[in-house]
From TrEMBL:
Pfam families listed in its UniProt record: TP_methylase
Keyword S-adenosyl-L-methionine carried by entry: yes
Protein name (Swiss-Prot/TrEMBL): Precorrin-6A synthase [deacetylating]
InterPro entries: 4pyrrol_Mease (IPR000878), 4pyrrol_Methylase_sf (IPR035996), 4pyrrole_Mease_sub1 (IPR014777), 4pyrrole_Mease_sub2 (IPR014776), CobF (IPR012797)
Pathway in which this enzyme or protein is active: Cofactor biosynthesis; adenosylcobalamin biosynthesis
The EC number(s) this enzyme carries: 2.1.1.152
Enzyme class: transferase
Keyword Cytoplasm among record annotations: no
Domain annotation Tetrapyrrole methylase: ranges: 5-216
Species this protein is from: Puniceibacterium sediminis
Known catalytic reactions: precorrin-5 + S-adenosyl-L-methionine + H2O = precorrin-6A + acetate + S-adenosyl-L-homocysteine + 2 H(+)
Coiled coil: none
GO molecular function term, any single one: precorrin-6A synthase (deacetylating) activity
Keyword set, alphabetical order: Cobalamin biosynthesis, Methyltransferase, S-adenosyl-L-methionine, Transferase
Length: 245
């Protein structure tokens, strides 16, 4: 039974992204749950361990394996079943160890943004008291890397996914759109007239790559860079901000 669950945002790839509050929480945790395989990104697993070591915590570190999503199920059902199974695996991995005190999980970026850890925590029975320690999001890492403001003066911002951009096109009336979780450079499907893109991959990491410019002019370069970087590293995480003049 988990009484206290701490979800600690760790930023997007630099150990320096973890806040003082995050480091303190790691030191005060009794147990830290860490995904050990199945993510397909060993560099990211290693970063989690570097952060834990740097915090100087004496917490017990317990690994759990991510389940595989069932490709036979429709998308939403597949995600629901996956979350249920992750919650079960947290509980199984802890098996009594949770009695020792707060259980911490290191969450990529910030737990509120395109991350389901908070939703998975709500599946635990009995429900633990959940504490969220905010982290730097990929959006902040992107705007900081390009030294740009997220919004125009008094402007709104829409945050969406590559899938939604492909399926529904440019959001009606939007001026600034941030696109995450896009494995297919979905900006290719847009009319680039009057559009500027700020793109970033591996933000916060030594491999960080940035491109920006008129969408029509820079689009091919981003596609080629992304392809080459993905081939070189075996994985890639990228995000971009599009602004319509
Ligand atoms: C599952 S979401 C997690 C977002 C995270 N919770 C946050 O606060 O940024 C993963 C997506 O975030 C973006 N992302 C996360 N880390 C990134 C990084 N270091 N560089 C570029 N994009 C990143 C990518 O769009 C990626 O597909």
């Amino acid at each position: 039974m988990i009484q206290d669950l701490w979800l600690i945002g760790i930023g997007t790839g630099s150990p320096a992204h973890v806040t003082c509050e995050g480091m303190q929480a790691l030191r005060e945790a009794a147990v830290i749950l860490v995904p050990q395989k199945g993510t397909g990104k060993d560099d990211l697993a290693e970063l989690r361990h570097r952060i834990i070591t740097a915090s100087g915590t004496t917490a017990r570190v317990i690994g759990f394996d991510y389940p595989v999503r069932d490709p036979e199920l429709p998308y939403l059902e597949r995600v629901e079943a996956w979350h249920d199974e992750i919650a079960r695996r947290w509980q199984a991995a802890l098996d009594g160890a949770a009695q020792a005190g707060p259980v911490a999980l290191l969450v990529w970026g910030d737990p509120s943004l395109y991350d389901s850890t908070i939703r998975i925590a709500a599946r635990l029975d009995p429900r633990p008291a959940v504490r969220v320690v905010p982290g730097i999001t990929a959006i902040q890492a992107l705007t900081a890397a390009h030294a740009i403001p997220l919004n125009t003066v008094n402007g709104a911002v829409e945050i969406t996914t590559g899938r939604r951009l492909r399926d529904h096109g440019w959001p009606a009336g939007a001026e600034t759109v941030v696109v995450m979780l896009d494995g297919e450079c979905s900006f290719q499907n847009l009319d680039p007239t009057g559009m500027t893109i700020w793109w970033g991959a591996f933000l916060g990491m030594p491999e960080q790559i940035l491109h920006h410019g008129d969408l029509a002019g820079v689009s091919d370069r981003i596609i080629a860079t992304r392809l080459a970087a993905r081939a070189e590293h075996g994985w890639i995480m990228d995000i971009y901000l599009l602004r319509k003049a």
